[in-house]
Amino acid sequence: xxxxxxxxxxxxxxxxxxxxxxxxxxxxxxxxxxxxxxxxxxxxxxxxxxxxxxxxxxxxxxxxxxxxxxxxxxxxxxxxxxxxxxxxxxxxxxxxxxxxxxxxxxxxxxxxxxxxxxxxxxxxxxxxxxxxxxxxxxxxxxxxxxxxxxxxxxxxxxxxxxxxxxxxxxxxxxxxxxxxxxxxxxxxxxxxxxxxxxxxxxxxxxxxxxxxxxxxxxxxxxxxxxxxxxxxxxxxxxxxxxxxxxxxxxxxxxxxxxxxxxxxxxxxxxxxxxxxxxxxx
Amino acid sequence: xxxxxxxxxxxxxxxxxxxxxxxxxxxxxxxxxxxxxxxxxxxxxxxxxxxxxxxxxxxxxxxxxxxxxxxxxxxxxxxxxxxxxxxxxxxxxxxxxxxxxxxxxxxxxxxxxxxxxxxxxxxxxxxxxxxxxxxxxxxxxxxxxxxxxxxxxxxxxxxxxxxxxxxxxxxxxxxxxxxxxxxxxxxxxxxxxxxxxxxxxxxxxxxxxxxxxxxxxxxxxxxxxxxxxxxxxxxxxxxxxxxxxxxxxxxxxxxxxxxxxxxxxxxxxxxxxxxxxxxxxxxxxxxxxxxxxxxxxxxxxxxxxxxxxxxxxxxxxxxxxxxxxxxxxxxxxxxxxxxxxxxxxxxxxxxxxxxxxxxxxxxxxxxxxxxxx
Lengths: 281, 373
Known about the structure:
heterodimer, A: mainly alpha, MetI-like fold, 12 helices, disordered N terminus, B: alpha+beta, Rossmann fold, CATH 2.40.50.100, 32% strand, globular, cell membrane (chain A), transmembrane (chain A), ABC transporter permease (chain A), MetI-like_sf (chain A), transport (chain A)
């Protein structure tokens, strides 16, 4: 900066830009204060959970020195581990279904509809209240006399996860040059081979991003799982919820920290992948 | 066209909702011809090209190549290939695999694909870029990959959608020559869609001028320039002085100017326009018997000069073109005489505009040069 101001004294009109920079920067900083306050509000509770997971004390709210003891303890907790296993099964199953259906749905909507209502219906489950989906699906399952269990949670989670995958793949599709598929057909590849060799590779970043998002959303979904699972097969959020009611152990903090880690990794990789081939053209 | 044509477009009509994109267009394209579909945007030229390729379905009409009915075949079974305006190179495949893609579709063996891709890369001079991805290529290189990918299939007909529009001006000039060279070398029939009359004129053997979904005129570049069939063609091709009026036995009666003698007499009394190319306008102190005007400006273009002359009674200046430099200066009083003029029919719904200088949009000085050269 000092260098710049030194040269500015010599230059007159053309180098006007560097001079007002410090003032503008100060003003910018002021503008950012509310933003940072907002971030503190959003992330402080999470930070506290992470910090407290390393708390030696059994009391959740009193700091008693650093310890890693809750992590091994967590892994010895049978109910918790069963919940985690259930959740992983559900998240994997739902992600698989949602990724396949969402991709096909997005392809179909993009190619064969002019959008509007059909598009809205495909994406609506992503924003419908969970409560509504939960009650609706429970009613639907009992109407068809479907037994409840992990399979019913998988189907239920696939409903909203499909909507997310569809939305992301559609967005990716809108950015593709439509003449890529035409070129493939022009060169002699039929619709199916064109889809596999051109469309799918081009959509891959969007599909993977959608899958990662679906997985993380299913991982900590509570309301819908609560309605649609059997009492004997609770998913992790339900296990935690019932534990909280009988008094929380700091294990929960350790678990929350681990889940946070998984989510962050997934979300960041999803973003990376969507950006990867995004601004190519 | 004495021999059987390669492509026959017969009464093709295309409709989008309420708008008719093509009004029963018919034309024939011969073997080994370099053919251009020329017109302003929205004239239907791209619709026609995409109908031939199989991406649009005409409401009526027939399109045949070598007697094969194209409209009954899906796009991927048609013996024609297209070079897309955006080039549509597959971003995830190397240059080599982009070019070989169409051969893989035919189910050819690896060795044969490699040989043919190698040959074609030599033709378009891309051999050293085989392993690159499209994103790593310049605009001109991408264009050549797109071209190679289409010609490696040895199509009966190569369709090119605005092949040069994505290139900057200098590359464009050399690619024009390159396309011509390739067309001779590989012996293919080219159909180029373009809105650039200069491009069409310099490359094509024959040009179909389209306007608002109708075929205005189909002729060689020379013929289009010398004998435009309509006011639109005269205005669109090259530069012209257009004098609107009514046809007489010997030419066109232009209000406020008198009769301009012109070839191709039309039915007397019908709306007509006299078309006079700038090189057919003579201007100078010693010119008499014609009109008088004042030189507004002169443009020296190297091989030729264009003189813009304000003639009282005409709202737009008359353009005259002479070889080399001109001695006339701005403000000089000169006589103006018209040499060869052609009378063309005028759409009476078009308001007569006396002495319009064309094209309707201002032509940059550097384009004037090419036309008069």
